[in-house]
Amino acid sequence: MTISAVAIDARVSGVRTTDTTLIVTLRDGREIRAPLSWFPRLAQAQPDARAKWEPAAAGHGIHWPLLDEDLSIEGLLRGAED
Question: Is 30 a member of any domain?
Answer without folding.
Answer: yes
